[in-house]
Amino acid sequence: MNNENIRDFIRERVSRDIREERISGGVVTRFPPEPNGYLHIGHAKSICLNFGIAEEFGGITYLRFDDTNPLSESASFVEAIQTDVKWLGFDWESRLTFASDYFPQLYEFAEELIKRDGAFVCDLSFEELQQSRGTLVKPGIDSPYRNRSIEENLDLFRRMRAGEFITGSKTLRAKIDMRAPNINMRDPVLYRIIHAPHHRTESNWCIYPMYDFTHCICDALEGITHSLCTLEFADHRPLYDWVLENININFHPPQIEFSRLGLEYNVMSKRVLSQLVESRYVTGWDDPRMPTLSGLRKRGVPPAAIRDFCNRIGITKQNNYIETELLDFCVRNTLENTTRRAMAVKRPLEVEITNFEGDDVGLPAPWHPKNLELGERTLTFGRTIYIDRDDFALDPPPKFKRLVQGGIVRLRYAFIIECLDVEKDEQGTVSKVFAKYYPTSRSGADTSGLKPKGVIQFVASNNAHSVEMHDYDRLFSVPTPHRERFDEELNPLSHVVHHGFVEKAVIAVSDSHSFQFERVGFYYRDLHKSSDEGQVVFHRTVPLNQGWKPKV
RNA sequence: UGGGGUGUGGCCAAGCGGUAAGGCAACGGGCUUUGAACCCGUCAUUCGCAGGUUCGAAUCCUGCCACCCCAGCCA
Questions:
Q1: How far is the C-alpha of A521 from the C-alpha of A471, rounded, in Å?
Q2: Which stretches of A361-401 are assigned E, i.e. beta strand?
Q3: Which pLDDT tens digit goes with each residue over A139-186?
Q4: Separation in Å, CA A332 to CA A279, A396, A524
């Protein structure tokens, strides 16, 4: 432990609690997802915080599923969430728990609360409860069932559990204060009747505890020393404390809130994300455009980049919208030194080298210009090659350093070529370029004396493997999409497919799926899916920084 | 007209009474067979606003303003 650990107000608090011996054992945290959706990068912030603090201070972390609502939860989400947490790089070891594991104990605490006259069974309907709760500025009114005897409450609650009443007909409510300015303290519901099977407890229960009753008790039972949650739960803290103070339990974790992550051009709302999935706007929770961990993974974002991102954004109580540039930076930064470079053309333009005769020549090229440990592969150069359409211009903008008519350009790791002529189609767009190459300009042995302004990538036709390059852009076209009209704010160009070529050596690589296609971007090969035509599919992880922008 | 939270450069974020860290972005320049990466440099006389306390305030006090969250038998 050292000062490096104290990077935010929560770590500051943890550090102080340790120093002042406020906690006996070590630090204990937990990450408590509800298994009703997939994890997104906002969850990653919380995961990195909870697991990170335990790691830094020599503590432990539980992965606890908050599964108290059988109507929206399922085992498949439980699976997916575990996969994502592991992938992110964290290990809960043996500490995998479920709120549903504690149902029996929770039930006992509920009975205890009734016996202490701290809770009552209420027969108010949903609408009646809503009416009597009051409003933000108007106090609520007591339930007519509030004064039932302890014996009657106990009897009723036991019968609720026994299944004597239909779904929604009764609730167990805390007896606090209907006039409390904090609405959460207005005799909140603790248990409700739901006759529905639960993904773990099946049909053993027909009453289910609410979050506010469950979370604090589970935290206490697990000895959580710092219960970290997002800001919207701050209003629930008095209730969290109330429950623990009104039952006989010997541990009382402090709840500490921090602000959730906002990412520009994205939305973290589970509701909106699942709607995108259900409407088939995206291909699934793991669509590469989604801010989900599975989506980021499919796009080729390494977990280390997400961890780095989470470390850079900080932990505060301020509302925040992080620019996507920071995430992109983290991704490029972690990929930069370890990812193979290769050549690919996204929008191929055929070039015939008119003075080239005979077989293609092989040209060695390192997989990475600086990290030579990655070795090298052999490129090929021959009479027919492809360059990217963007690298040729009939009418070049100022400062254009690529190929123009009558101009020269270097083909990376190969030769300098000079454009002699072009062929156009009916629409007048260039369909083919004729060029000559300078045999003495071979990379590494250049005696031509030529000094081209630019270098471009190419793929020789004999060395070209055709692929689909899936380019992704921001999911939304506005930085802070509105939850209600999110469908109008989707970016129609968030997914564009290019049919291009990559050098064959790329296809043979098996120990890594990430590549940087030089001057284009980082791409990630999808090994699970090929296109409809059976082609190899690459997802663009992130584009390269553009150091020069042509005026559009 | 209730309760809770927050206001430091474009976006994050340090700062905890002693005279505004850092990162991302941006902008200049260097280097370059990736217009990438890398390297240099520039970028808040000012901390939501107004008063006050103090030798001294982003930090303390008072008032005001703005934004976010809360009225699920969701979490």
A1: 10
A2: 361-366, 376-381, 384-388, 392-393
A3: 999 999 999 999 999 999 999 999 999 999 999 999 999 999 999 999
A4: 32, 30, 13
Given this model, what pLDDT does residue A532 score? 64
Residue nearest to nucleotide B2 (CA to C1'): A137
CB burial class (10 A; 0-12, 13-18, 19+) of residue A18? middle
Q: Is the dihedral of CA A372, A374, A377, A381 positive or negative?
A: negative
Q: In what order do the strands lie in the sheet with A189-193?
A: A119-122, A171-174, A189-193, A207-209
Q: What is the model's pLDDT at position A330?
A: 98
Sign of the C-alpha dihedral, residues A110, A111, A117, A122?
A: positive
Q: Nearest nt to A397, CA vs C1'?
A: B35
Q: Are A261 and A41 in contact (CB under 8 A)?
A: yes
Q: For strand B, which nucleotides have at least one atom less than 7 Å from a protein CB?
A: 1-8, 10-16, 22-26, 33-38, 67-75
Structural element, H or E, at residue A335: helix A324-335
What residues in chain A have per-residue pLDDT under 50?
1-2, 552
A49, A260 in Cβ contact below 8 A? no
Angle at A37 between CA A35 and CA A42, to 5 degrees: 105
Q: How far is residue A461's CA from residue A350's CA, in Å, rounded to a whole number?
A: 9
Torsion of CA A449, A454, A455, A459, to 10 degrees: -110
Taking the whole predicted model, whether its pTM rises above 0.90 is answered as yes
A442 is written with which tokens?
A: 């071979």
- What is the per-residue pLDDT for A527? 87
Q: Which of residues 210-229 of A touch strand B (CB under 7 A)?
A: 210-212, 214-215
Could you tell me if the ipTM is greater than 0.85?
yes
Q: How far apart are CA A62 and CA A309, in angstroms?
A: 23
Give strand pairing partners of A250. none
Protein-nucleic contacts, chain A 512-551 to strand B, CB < 7 Å: 516, 518-519, 544-548
In sequence order, the 6+-apart residues with CB closer than 8 A to the CB of A16 are A22
Model pLDDT, residue A552: 46
What is the Cα Rg of chain A in Å?
Answer: 31
Cα A410 to Cα A225, A261, A441, A457: the distances in Å are 62, 45, 9, 9
